[in-house]
Protein: Phosphoribosylformylglycinamidine cyclo-ligase
Amino acid sequence: MTDNASIYAKSGVDTAAGDLAVELMKSAVSRTHGPEVVGGFGGFAGLFDASALLGYKRPLLASSTDGVGTKVAIAQAIDKHDTIGQDLVAMVVDDIVVVGAKPLFMTDYIACGKVVPERIADIVRGIADACTATGTALVGGETAEHPGLLGPDDYDVAGAATGVVEADRMLSASLVQDGDVVLAMGASGLHSNGFSLVRHILSERGIGYERHSADLGASYGEALLTPTALYTSPLLRVLEDPALEGAIHSLSHVTGGGIAANLARVLPLGSWVELDRGTWSPLPVFRHLADLGGHTLESLEGAWNLGIGMFAVVAADRASHVAAALTAEGLDTWVAGTISMAPRDFTGFEQGAKGTNGGAVRLVGAFPA
Structure:
Protein backbone atom coordinates (compact mmCIF):
# COMPACT_ATOMS: atom_id res chain seq x y z
CA MET A 1 0.00 0.00 0.00
CA THR A 2 1.40 3.39 -0.96
CA ASP A 3 1.82 6.11 1.64
CA ASN A 4 -1.10 8.04 0.12
CA ALA A 5 -3.35 4.96 0.25
CA SER A 6 -2.25 4.30 3.81
CA ILE A 7 -3.21 7.81 4.85
CA TYR A 8 -6.63 7.39 3.20
CA ALA A 9 -7.09 4.03 4.95
CA LYS A 10 -6.73 5.75 8.32
CA SER A 11 -9.94 7.64 7.53
CA GLY A 12 -11.74 4.35 6.89
CA VAL A 13 -11.48 4.12 3.10
CA ASP A 14 -9.62 1.03 1.86
CA THR A 15 -8.73 1.47 -1.81
CA ALA A 16 -6.96 -1.90 -1.89
CA ALA A 17 -10.17 -3.64 -0.82
CA GLY A 18 -11.98 -1.77 -3.58
CA ASP A 19 -9.47 -2.98 -6.15
CA LEU A 20 -9.86 -6.57 -4.93
CA ALA A 21 -13.65 -6.30 -5.20
CA VAL A 22 -13.25 -5.18 -8.80
CA GLU A 23 -11.04 -8.15 -9.60
CA LEU A 24 -13.55 -10.56 -8.04
CA MET A 25 -16.45 -9.18 -10.08
CA LYS A 26 -14.59 -8.61 -13.33
CA SER A 27 -15.35 -11.91 -15.09
CA ALA A 28 -19.05 -11.80 -14.24
CA VAL A 29 -19.41 -8.26 -15.56
CA SER A 30 -17.44 -9.05 -18.72
CA ARG A 31 -19.86 -11.88 -19.53
CA THR A 32 -22.61 -9.29 -20.04
CA HIS A 33 -20.60 -7.57 -22.77
CA GLY A 34 -21.43 -8.22 -26.40
CA PRO A 35 -19.69 -6.61 -29.36
CA GLU A 36 -21.67 -3.41 -28.71
CA VAL A 37 -19.65 -2.67 -25.58
CA VAL A 38 -16.56 -0.68 -26.54
CA GLY A 39 -13.43 -0.42 -24.43
CA GLY A 40 -14.14 -3.30 -22.10
CA PHE A 41 -13.98 -3.15 -18.33
CA GLY A 42 -12.69 -0.43 -16.01
CA GLY A 43 -12.94 2.79 -17.95
CA PHE A 44 -14.13 6.07 -16.50
CA ALA A 45 -17.21 5.84 -18.73
CA GLY A 46 -18.94 2.83 -20.24
CA LEU A 47 -19.15 2.95 -24.03
CA PHE A 48 -21.94 1.33 -26.02
CA ASP A 49 -21.97 1.23 -29.82
CA ALA A 50 -25.36 2.65 -30.80
CA SER A 51 -24.91 2.13 -34.55
CA ALA A 52 -27.55 -0.62 -34.42
CA LEU A 53 -30.09 2.14 -33.80
CA LEU A 54 -29.47 3.38 -37.34
CA GLY A 55 -31.77 0.58 -38.45
CA TYR A 56 -34.69 2.08 -36.56
CA LYS A 57 -37.07 4.49 -38.27
CA ARG A 58 -37.70 6.47 -35.09
CA PRO A 59 -35.89 4.99 -32.09
CA LEU A 60 -37.15 6.08 -28.68
CA LEU A 61 -34.74 5.68 -25.79
CA ALA A 62 -36.32 4.45 -22.55
CA SER A 63 -34.63 4.93 -19.18
CA SER A 64 -35.31 3.79 -15.64
CA THR A 65 -33.61 4.02 -12.27
CA ASP A 66 -34.42 2.30 -8.99
CA GLY A 67 -33.13 0.44 -5.94
CA VAL A 68 -34.42 -2.46 -3.88
CA GLY A 69 -35.48 -0.59 -0.76
CA THR A 70 -35.18 -2.05 2.71
CA LYS A 71 -34.90 -5.61 1.40
CA VAL A 72 -31.15 -5.01 1.71
CA ALA A 73 -31.58 -4.96 5.52
CA ILE A 74 -32.57 -8.63 5.44
CA ALA A 75 -29.62 -9.54 3.22
CA GLN A 76 -27.34 -7.77 5.68
CA ALA A 77 -28.96 -9.43 8.69
CA ILE A 78 -28.33 -12.98 7.43
CA ASP A 79 -25.14 -12.15 5.50
CA LYS A 80 -26.54 -13.38 2.18
CA HIS A 81 -25.88 -11.04 -0.72
CA ASP A 82 -26.10 -13.11 -3.92
CA THR A 83 -29.77 -12.38 -4.72
CA ILE A 84 -29.99 -8.62 -4.19
CA GLY A 85 -28.36 -8.03 -7.59
CA GLN A 86 -31.19 -9.78 -9.42
CA ASP A 87 -33.68 -7.72 -7.43
CA LEU A 88 -31.98 -4.55 -8.63
CA VAL A 89 -31.97 -5.55 -12.30
CA ALA A 90 -35.60 -6.64 -12.14
CA MET A 91 -36.71 -3.37 -10.58
CA VAL A 92 -34.94 -1.34 -13.26
CA VAL A 93 -35.09 -3.37 -16.46
CA ASP A 94 -38.64 -4.69 -16.04
CA ASP A 95 -39.80 -1.06 -15.91
CA ILE A 96 -38.23 -0.51 -19.33
CA VAL A 97 -40.01 -3.43 -20.99
CA VAL A 98 -43.35 -1.95 -19.87
CA VAL A 99 -43.18 0.46 -22.83
CA GLY A 100 -42.11 -2.35 -25.13
CA ALA A 101 -38.44 -1.37 -25.05
CA LYS A 102 -35.47 -3.71 -25.29
CA PRO A 103 -32.83 -2.96 -22.63
CA LEU A 104 -29.43 -2.01 -23.97
CA PHE A 105 -27.17 -1.27 -21.01
CA MET A 106 -27.15 -0.66 -17.26
CA THR A 107 -24.95 0.88 -14.59
CA ASP A 108 -25.02 0.20 -10.86
CA TYR A 109 -24.08 2.07 -7.69
CA ILE A 110 -23.26 0.49 -4.32
CA ALA A 111 -22.74 2.68 -1.25
CA CYS A 112 -21.31 0.91 1.78
CA GLY A 113 -19.75 1.65 5.14
CA LYS A 114 -16.82 -0.67 4.48
CA VAL A 115 -15.78 -2.46 1.31
CA VAL A 116 -15.78 -6.20 1.96
CA PRO A 117 -14.58 -7.49 -1.42
CA GLU A 118 -16.39 -10.83 -1.28
CA ARG A 119 -19.69 -9.14 -0.33
CA ILE A 120 -19.44 -6.55 -3.10
CA ALA A 121 -18.51 -9.26 -5.59
CA ASP A 122 -21.57 -11.33 -4.57
CA ILE A 123 -23.84 -8.34 -5.17
CA VAL A 124 -22.31 -7.49 -8.54
CA ARG A 125 -22.28 -11.12 -9.69
CA GLY A 126 -26.02 -11.17 -9.04
CA ILE A 127 -26.43 -7.99 -11.05
CA ALA A 128 -24.32 -9.38 -13.89
CA ASP A 129 -26.13 -12.73 -14.01
CA ALA A 130 -29.50 -10.97 -14.19
CA CYS A 131 -28.18 -8.59 -16.85
CA THR A 132 -27.11 -11.62 -18.89
CA ALA A 133 -30.56 -13.18 -18.47
CA THR A 134 -32.26 -10.00 -19.71
CA GLY A 135 -29.85 -9.21 -22.54
CA THR A 136 -28.54 -6.10 -20.81
CA ALA A 137 -24.89 -5.04 -20.91
CA LEU A 138 -23.50 -3.97 -17.54
CA VAL A 139 -21.24 -1.20 -18.81
CA GLY A 140 -20.19 0.47 -15.59
CA GLY A 141 -20.71 0.97 -11.91
CA GLU A 142 -19.40 2.49 -8.73
CA THR A 143 -18.70 1.18 -5.26
CA ALA A 144 -18.47 4.06 -2.79
CA GLU A 145 -17.11 3.58 0.72
CA HIS A 146 -18.74 5.93 3.25
CA PRO A 147 -17.24 5.31 6.70
CA GLY A 148 -18.95 7.26 9.44
CA LEU A 149 -22.07 7.67 7.33
CA LEU A 150 -22.89 3.96 7.01
CA GLY A 151 -22.03 1.18 9.42
CA PRO A 152 -19.36 -1.39 8.45
CA ASP A 153 -21.98 -3.93 7.36
CA ASP A 154 -24.44 -1.45 5.85
CA TYR A 155 -24.90 -0.87 2.14
CA ASP A 156 -27.47 0.26 -0.38
CA VAL A 157 -27.73 -0.44 -4.09
CA ALA A 158 -29.19 1.48 -7.01
CA GLY A 159 -29.06 1.19 -10.76
CA ALA A 160 -30.08 2.82 -14.01
CA ALA A 161 -30.67 1.35 -17.44
CA THR A 162 -31.38 2.49 -20.98
CA GLY A 163 -33.40 0.69 -23.63
CA VAL A 164 -34.86 1.34 -27.07
CA VAL A 165 -38.20 0.86 -28.79
CA GLU A 166 -39.38 1.71 -32.28
CA ALA A 167 -41.87 4.56 -31.93
CA ASP A 168 -44.68 2.75 -33.70
CA ARG A 169 -44.17 -0.34 -31.50
CA MET A 170 -44.30 1.53 -28.18
CA LEU A 171 -46.87 0.29 -25.67
CA SER A 172 -49.04 2.83 -23.87
CA ALA A 173 -52.45 3.52 -22.37
CA SER A 174 -53.48 5.19 -25.63
CA LEU A 175 -53.69 1.77 -27.30
CA VAL A 176 -56.09 0.28 -24.74
CA GLN A 177 -59.62 -0.33 -26.02
CA ASP A 178 -63.02 -1.19 -24.62
CA GLY A 179 -63.21 -4.95 -24.06
CA ASP A 180 -59.47 -5.52 -23.77
CA VAL A 181 -58.53 -8.39 -21.50
CA VAL A 182 -56.25 -7.97 -18.48
CA LEU A 183 -53.81 -10.85 -18.10
CA ALA A 184 -51.97 -11.24 -14.81
CA MET A 185 -48.54 -12.85 -14.53
CA GLY A 186 -47.43 -14.59 -11.36
CA ALA A 187 -44.82 -13.22 -8.98
CA SER A 188 -41.96 -15.15 -7.39
CA GLY A 189 -42.70 -13.66 -3.97
CA LEU A 190 -42.63 -10.20 -2.42
CA HIS A 191 -40.23 -9.01 -5.11
CA SER A 192 -38.66 -5.75 -3.81
CA ASN A 193 -41.51 -3.71 -2.34
CA GLY A 194 -43.27 -3.55 1.00
CA PHE A 195 -40.33 -4.75 3.07
CA SER A 196 -40.64 -1.98 5.64
CA LEU A 197 -44.02 -3.49 6.53
CA VAL A 198 -42.55 -7.02 6.51
CA ARG A 199 -39.77 -6.00 8.86
CA HIS A 200 -42.25 -4.20 11.13
CA ILE A 201 -44.47 -7.30 11.38
CA LEU A 202 -41.57 -9.58 12.26
CA SER A 203 -40.13 -7.10 14.73
CA GLU A 204 -43.49 -6.73 16.47
CA ARG A 205 -43.66 -10.51 16.88
CA GLY A 206 -40.04 -10.82 17.99
CA ILE A 207 -39.20 -13.08 15.06
CA GLY A 208 -35.59 -13.16 13.87
CA TYR A 209 -34.69 -13.77 10.24
CA GLU A 210 -32.79 -16.92 11.16
CA ARG A 211 -35.89 -18.59 12.64
CA HIS A 212 -37.32 -21.45 10.58
CA SER A 213 -40.91 -21.17 9.39
CA ALA A 214 -42.81 -24.38 8.76
CA ASP A 215 -45.30 -22.46 6.60
CA LEU A 216 -42.55 -21.09 4.38
CA GLY A 217 -40.33 -24.19 4.40
CA ALA A 218 -37.21 -22.14 5.14
CA SER A 219 -35.89 -19.54 7.52
CA TYR A 220 -37.67 -16.21 7.33
CA GLY A 221 -34.56 -14.56 5.93
CA GLU A 222 -34.10 -17.10 3.15
CA ALA A 223 -37.78 -17.05 2.19
CA LEU A 224 -37.92 -13.26 2.13
CA LEU A 225 -34.81 -13.02 -0.06
CA THR A 226 -36.44 -14.99 -2.88
CA PRO A 227 -35.26 -12.91 -5.85
CA THR A 228 -37.61 -10.79 -7.91
CA ALA A 229 -38.81 -12.51 -11.06
CA LEU A 230 -37.36 -11.31 -14.38
CA TYR A 231 -40.05 -10.67 -17.00
CA THR A 232 -38.08 -8.81 -19.67
CA SER A 233 -36.83 -11.61 -21.93
CA PRO A 234 -40.08 -13.64 -22.00
CA LEU A 235 -42.12 -10.51 -22.68
CA LEU A 236 -39.80 -9.33 -25.46
CA ARG A 237 -40.00 -12.70 -27.18
CA VAL A 238 -43.80 -12.51 -27.13
CA LEU A 239 -43.80 -8.88 -28.27
CA GLU A 240 -41.45 -9.75 -31.14
CA ASP A 241 -43.53 -12.75 -32.30
CA PRO A 242 -44.91 -11.72 -35.73
CA ALA A 243 -48.08 -13.72 -35.08
CA LEU A 244 -48.80 -11.59 -32.00
CA GLU A 245 -47.77 -8.18 -33.33
CA GLY A 246 -50.01 -5.49 -31.89
CA ALA A 247 -51.86 -7.86 -29.56
CA ILE A 248 -50.42 -6.38 -26.37
CA HIS A 249 -51.54 -2.80 -25.80
CA SER A 250 -49.98 -1.98 -22.42
CA LEU A 251 -47.98 -3.57 -19.63
CA SER A 252 -47.75 -2.77 -15.93
CA HIS A 253 -44.98 -3.76 -13.55
CA VAL A 254 -46.51 -4.29 -10.10
CA THR A 255 -44.09 -2.52 -7.76
CA GLY A 256 -44.52 0.14 -5.07
CA GLY A 257 -48.12 1.25 -4.62
CA GLY A 258 -49.67 -2.14 -4.98
CA ILE A 259 -51.90 -3.92 -7.44
CA ALA A 260 -54.65 -1.50 -8.46
CA ALA A 261 -52.56 1.67 -8.56
CA ASN A 262 -49.92 0.21 -10.84
CA LEU A 263 -52.44 -1.11 -13.35
CA ALA A 264 -54.33 2.21 -13.31
CA ARG A 265 -51.17 3.96 -14.53
CA VAL A 266 -51.30 2.16 -17.91
CA LEU A 267 -55.02 2.60 -18.62
CA PRO A 268 -56.59 5.61 -20.36
CA LEU A 269 -58.63 8.17 -18.48
CA GLY A 270 -62.28 7.11 -18.35
CA SER A 271 -61.56 3.38 -18.59
CA TRP A 272 -62.06 0.99 -15.68
CA VAL A 273 -61.63 -2.61 -14.69
CA GLU A 274 -62.61 -4.80 -11.76
CA LEU A 275 -59.97 -7.40 -10.99
CA ASP A 276 -61.43 -10.64 -9.69
CA ARG A 277 -59.64 -11.85 -6.55
CA GLY A 278 -61.06 -15.29 -7.18
CA THR A 279 -58.79 -15.79 -10.19
CA TRP A 280 -55.65 -16.39 -8.16
CA SER A 281 -54.48 -17.52 -4.75
CA PRO A 282 -51.92 -15.30 -2.99
CA LEU A 283 -48.62 -17.07 -2.34
CA PRO A 284 -48.06 -18.66 1.10
CA VAL A 285 -45.59 -15.95 2.11
CA PHE A 286 -48.33 -13.31 1.85
CA ARG A 287 -50.88 -15.36 3.77
CA HIS A 288 -48.36 -16.15 6.50
CA LEU A 289 -47.20 -12.57 6.95
CA ALA A 290 -50.78 -11.28 6.91
CA ASP A 291 -51.71 -13.71 9.66
CA LEU A 292 -48.67 -12.72 11.73
CA GLY A 293 -49.56 -9.04 11.41
CA GLY A 294 -53.26 -9.55 12.06
CA HIS A 295 -54.14 -8.14 8.62
CA THR A 296 -56.55 -9.26 5.95
CA LEU A 297 -55.09 -9.92 2.52
CA GLU A 298 -57.44 -7.29 1.10
CA SER A 299 -55.96 -4.62 3.37
CA LEU A 300 -52.49 -5.33 1.97
CA GLU A 301 -53.29 -4.88 -1.72
CA GLY A 302 -51.75 -1.42 -1.70
CA ALA A 303 -48.48 -2.58 -0.13
CA TRP A 304 -47.70 -6.01 -1.60
CA ASN A 305 -48.14 -7.61 -5.01
CA LEU A 306 -49.89 -10.66 -3.42
CA GLY A 307 -48.61 -12.87 -6.22
CA ILE A 308 -48.99 -10.66 -9.32
CA GLY A 309 -45.76 -9.33 -10.80
CA MET A 310 -46.90 -7.96 -14.14
CA PHE A 311 -50.09 -7.19 -16.07
CA ALA A 312 -50.65 -7.26 -19.81
CA VAL A 313 -53.65 -5.49 -21.34
CA VAL A 314 -54.37 -7.28 -24.62
CA ALA A 315 -56.82 -7.29 -27.51
CA ALA A 316 -59.83 -9.45 -26.62
CA ASP A 317 -59.74 -11.55 -29.79
CA ARG A 318 -56.08 -12.47 -29.22
CA ALA A 319 -56.00 -12.81 -25.44
CA SER A 320 -55.96 -16.60 -25.44
CA HIS A 321 -53.03 -16.66 -27.86
CA VAL A 322 -51.04 -14.15 -25.79
CA ALA A 323 -51.79 -16.08 -22.60
CA ALA A 324 -50.63 -19.31 -24.22
CA ALA A 325 -47.43 -17.65 -25.44
CA LEU A 326 -46.66 -16.20 -22.00
CA THR A 327 -47.34 -19.56 -20.38
CA ALA A 328 -45.02 -21.26 -22.88
CA GLU A 329 -42.36 -18.75 -21.82
CA GLY A 330 -42.67 -19.99 -18.24
CA LEU A 331 -44.88 -17.20 -16.91
CA ASP A 332 -47.90 -18.30 -14.90
CA THR A 333 -50.66 -16.32 -16.66
CA TRP A 334 -54.39 -15.94 -16.12
CA VAL A 335 -57.31 -13.67 -17.02
CA ALA A 336 -57.93 -11.20 -14.18
CA GLY A 337 -60.49 -8.78 -15.68
CA THR A 338 -61.89 -6.93 -18.70
CA ILE A 339 -61.50 -3.24 -19.58
CA SER A 340 -64.65 -1.16 -19.93
CA MET A 341 -65.13 2.39 -21.21
CA ALA A 342 -68.77 2.59 -20.08
CA PRO A 343 -69.58 5.56 -17.83
CA ARG A 344 -69.88 4.68 -14.15
CA ASP A 345 -69.34 5.91 -10.60
CA PHE A 346 -65.68 5.44 -9.64
CA THR A 347 -66.20 5.46 -5.89
CA GLY A 348 -63.94 2.81 -4.37
CA PHE A 349 -61.63 2.65 -7.38
CA GLU A 350 -57.93 3.55 -7.55
CA GLN A 351 -57.53 6.20 -10.26
CA GLY A 352 -54.11 6.80 -11.73
CA ALA A 353 -50.94 6.97 -9.64
CA LYS A 354 -47.45 8.48 -9.58
CA GLY A 355 -48.75 11.72 -11.07
CA THR A 356 -50.65 10.10 -13.96
CA ASN A 357 -54.33 10.62 -14.74
CA GLY A 358 -55.04 7.05 -15.71
CA GLY A 359 -57.88 4.59 -15.60
CA ALA A 360 -59.77 3.28 -12.60
CA VAL A 361 -59.12 -0.09 -10.98
CA ARG A 362 -60.53 -1.95 -8.04
CA LEU A 363 -60.38 -5.50 -6.77
CA VAL A 364 -63.62 -7.39 -6.22
CA GLY A 365 -64.69 -10.77 -4.90
CA ALA A 366 -62.86 -12.97 -2.45
CA PHE A 367 -59.54 -14.80 -2.55
CA PRO A 368 -59.78 -18.59 -2.62
CA ALA A 369 -59.53 -20.07 0.87
In short: The domain at 3-48+58-169 is CATH 3.30.1330.10 (60s Ribosomal Protein L30; Chain: A;). The chain has a mean pLDDT of 91.
